[in-house]
Every structure is written in C-alpha cells, then in structure tokens.
Amino acid sequence: MADSNIADTPVKPSKDEKKKLDNELNEALEESFPGSDPLSITQPAPSEPDGDSKRRD
To answer: How far apart are CA 22 and CA 29, in angstroms?
Structure first.
C-alpha cells in the first residue's frame, strides 16, 4: 500500500524547472491572446419587439 502522506505532499520544482514552466505558460498565453472578443464598453440599443403574439413577458 502507498503511504498517504507521500501522495498529499506537493512536489516543489527546481528553479530551472520553474523557469521552464513559466516560459511555457507565457508562450501559451501569448499564442492564445486574445482568447475571446474584446470587451465592449457600450451597450447595444434595445431591439424592436418581434411581434410574436404567443409570447407573453
């Protein structure tokens, strides 16, 4: 059986490993930026009712 304390102990990466991971993360973020459409600071005008008489608000 495995010792449960070992499984719960986080592994701390070395400085070189951390730097490599940080560089990989930064590169992935740069490649995926922007991840979505830019934020809009204005709101669109309200739309006109579609005239559907079956729908009640």
So the answer is: 10
